[in-house]
Amino acid sequence: MKAVVYEGPRQVSVNDVPDARIERPTDVLVRITATNICGSDLHMYEGRTDFETGRTFGHENMGEVVEVGSGVDKVEVGGHVVLPFNISCGFCKNCERGLTNYCLTTQPDPAAAGAAYGFAAMGPWAGGQAEYLRVPYGDHNCLRLGEDAAEKENDYVMLADIFPTGYHATEMAGVVPGDSVVIYGGGPVGLMAAYSATIKGAAKVMVVDRHADRLKLAEQIGAIAIDDSKVDPVQAVLDQTMGLGADRGCECVGYQAHDPQGTEDPALTMNRIIASVRFTGGIGVVGVFLPADPGGPDEMAQQGKVPFDFGLSWFKGQTIGTGQAPVKKYNRRLRDLIAAGKATPSWIVSHELPLDGAVEAYQQFDDRTDGWTKVILKPAMPAGKAG
Ligand SMILES: [Zn+2]
Ligand SMILES: [Zn+2]
């Protein structure tokens, strides 16, 4: 089968790899209909992780079930499913508590927790930017979709990662109706955090970024766009909140935070968010930070150390939540919002491409080319055709 293969820093190919197949009775085999390129794919694409060459990308996957193992009870051939990017078992100590983002069964390293498709340090699992995907513990990991699966495909595929991840940022920040919320980072996850805050009834949502295409999308859902290449974003948030700071903040940038000139500072958004959120406010950090970053700008960054203003945050009595999203905690409810027509996260999609469009798509997305806000790969689309 064809898949998107990592060849080395800033190099992918679309190549033949061994077919995905049922390996255990609890597996489900899915023919991929839609699979997104994610900002966290770019960390690996840029060679900033120890992702092995020859492995396949793709953790935001949706498709049609073509085969089920003998131990699968609920999922049926012909059904359409969307897969949380977290691969989890459902029965380990963390999964039992709903923390499927830190599954202990699907991560083979006993010193680590959590697994994902096609992801550095998240287990050996193949990615879904491919024609087919093996889904372990299929009954547990497949979220079944209704008859509108194809019609609303671009909405439902966002349930694999970015919609629940954005929602999780607002959960960790503690967003409730009437809150003012500042989102740092207007990429797909930041836009989903803004969207989630809006769905939850936030009174004021502010999105800080510097890319015109992203800020325009933020404004389309009623958020206030703050361009940090033009104004001091902390001052802009204070000006919007009577000098008090926002009730809640969501960090959706991560360790590759940089100023508009491109100088990296992994503490940049953390410090800005701590300064932008009021005393006793809440902060949810879903931007990726790593325990080691060999390509980081200085020795501290290379060791995964981020010198952020903990003293100020402590002084303000802020609550900070961190880590990857437990997608299964939210995906069913968010699916039902989509099914009911009350959420349409596909508004951020800029490109639908066949699998062989991945080579160009990775390059354009990595370059932050204007207008490339979210790319969906559709393996059934004829090669060379853009939609
Ligand atoms: Zn993702
Ligand atoms: Zn587990």
TrEMBL record:
The gene is fdhA-2. It comes from Isoptericola cucumis. SUPFAM superfamilies: GroES-like, NAD(P)-binding Rossmann-fold domains. Residues 25-137 form the Alcohol dehydrogenase-like N-terminal domain. This is Glutathione-independent formaldehyde dehydrogenase. The lineage of its organism: Bacteria, Bacillati, Actinomycetota, Actinomycetes, Micrococcales. Its cofactor is Zn(2+). Residues 188-288 form the Alcohol dehydrogenase-like C-terminal domain. Belongs to the zinc-containing alcohol dehydrogenase family. Keywords: Metal-binding, NAD, Oxidoreductase, Zinc.
